[in-house]
Design brief:
The structure is a homodimer.
Chain A (H helix, E strand, L loop, with lengths): L2 E3 L3 E4 L18 E6 L15 E7 L9 E2 L8 E2 L12 E12 L2 E5 L7 E8 L2 H4 L7 H8 L1
Antiparallel strand pairs in A: 2-3, 2-9, 3-8, 4-7, 4-9, 5-6, 7-8
């Protein structure tokens, strides 16, 4: 079984080198643009009413993967699926960004953390009723972020 | 440009009919299981230290899409990318579920909202520092949820 994904647009950012790229949107105030291919532009109606959107995209520069990795934020090996490492069996990235404005098929976003030219696969509206969880625990990340 | 995605496992749930399936995990307390294909099981190390995980999966029963849709929770047409509708150009679904336990390559989850047999594409740990946004506004959803 396989699923063929084709980009619906492209994400532009100030980052042309993986080493400069912020680790997560909450660590970035960078401004970027999402340009949707014109044939999908009608799907953006009303998206500007949402303050935040979820971008799903392809980690197009990742090659291969390891099932045990050291996350950028830790120095210990963990299972790949316990990390947000970009090299994954299905290289799908997820970022939540602030949506500043829409002009036709162009979205201005804040908090972008991806490489310039990243192929966009999907946009979903961020809805706290669906997407916010409290009373969480976060394993190695919790330990590191307290350090 | 295209990206070929192959399932890394399967999600089991009590739901065999789209009409019975909850609209979002926060509206579900259903128990389910994620079974990772054995060749990816090593990638699960330490995931059990996280209370919540993000499942990315294929909407394998969706066929085609419209760029303007009526969401399940509204009676007005909106742009597809302003909704979480399952029929999308790239049919990737996203659910945040509680992780109850791991036994080898099997994850017990709570709050499952997908069809039984859904092909799993990726698992990411849910990290509030990355994934929680406050001071949001949510357009048509906000209006409907106050109604």
């Amino acid at each position: 079984m396989e699923f063929v994904m084709r980009p619906i647009g492209v994400i532009h950012s100030p980052f042309t080198d993986t080493k400069q790229t912020p680790i997560q949107p909450t660590r970035s105030q960078a401004i970027g643009q999402v340009i949707i291919h014109p044939e999908f532009a009608d799907g953006l109606q009303d998206v500007e009413e949402f303050s935040h959107i979820i971008l799903l995209y392809a980690f197009h520069q990742s090659e291969g993967y390891s099932l045990r990795v050291k996350p950028f934020l830790d120095d210990q090996l963990h299972g790949l699926f316990a990390t947000r490492h970009p090299c994954r069996p299905n290289p799908i990235g997820l970022s939540i960004v602030r949506l500043l404005a829409r002009r036709d098929n162009v979205l201005e976003i804040e908090g972008v953390d991806v490489l310039d030219g990243t192929p966009l696969l999907d946009i979903k509206p961020y809805v706290p009723d669906f997407d916010v969880r409290t009373n969480t625990h976060t394993g190695w990340y919790e330990v590191r972020s307290r350090a």
